[in-house]
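Researcher: Checking consistency across runs. Here is TRAP-type C4-dicarboxylate transport system, periplasmic component again:
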Amino acid sequence: METKMTKQTTFRGTALAALLAAAAALPASAETWRMSTQASSESFEGQAIDKFAELVETYTDGEIEVRVYPNEQLGKLDTVMDQLGQGVIQVVSTSVALLGRYVEAIDYTSAPFLFEDYEQWSRFMNSELVQGWVSEAEEAGNIEVLGDVTAMPRGSYRVIASETPVASLEDFDGLRVRQWSNDLMVNAWEHLGAEVRILSWSEVYDGLNRGLIQAVTSPIELIEPQKFYEVAPNISRTNEYPQALAFLVNKDTMEGLSPEMQEAVERAHAEASTFMEDLLDANVEEIVTTLESEGATFVDLDLGPVVERMDGFYQELDAAGELPDGFLDAVAAARTE
């Protein structure tokens, strides 16, 4: 007859065996990466980032978990970029132009109203000139750019969402436009006649609501999840510049991985990029319909005079010797290839 003590011993042995089995199933060197992003989880950008995190865990067999912190939860961009270089944060998703803090010339990868289309910009970004800038920035910031920086478009096209309609160059005069802290962006928009206000992305809605700013530039895909249409219901397509979402990884973290784990992370990025492209292709028309149903009005902006004025801006910088060496030549070469 089985005694009470025998039953307890059997139960404890079974429980211990289960715990040991569970522990054995866990990766021996599991680590958690903290990833900072500006986007909300509901946005297409947020969905692509979550897909990346999911695929990293899958392709590394659980040895790496990417924990995503949306909406600048880990701090503003300057703060998270510092923490990225130090290894406090392992991944940041943002514009590659943020590497301009290390190499000023990289600011010009987001030169407003200069590139004709995404294909020209992609060729420019993969030119020897720009790749040299990026390599220098990676070294200076202890950062590695994951994969092809142009692989994940950040949006179908850029727009300006404003309190009042923006239909012509003249409508920029005196318009309080939000930008981020970047001399090229500030100078370019002031050249167009706007009054530039510097706000972090997470402060934009409140800034519009309180009248600190009257307009914000953005990929069209971020207007609805950020609810900008509620306080800036007039939307004009600007094609301001092509933009991709760069995944910046702490260099020490990446180099500390085995070749197999590095390949797994690169594979996750490549497939998340394809996921993002498919999202954009499938939903851009629906985005316009959704915004209109929410009360937004789409305004036709005559871009000819805008581009013409900005051409003068770049010519003035070139004549003053203030453009990076070879910049306009590389832009022209990318146009004609």
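Researcher: Does this match what you'd expect to see?
Model: One thing to look at in this run: Residues 19-154+243-284 form a domain with the D-Maltodextrin-Binding Protein; domain 2 fold (CATH 3.40.190.170).
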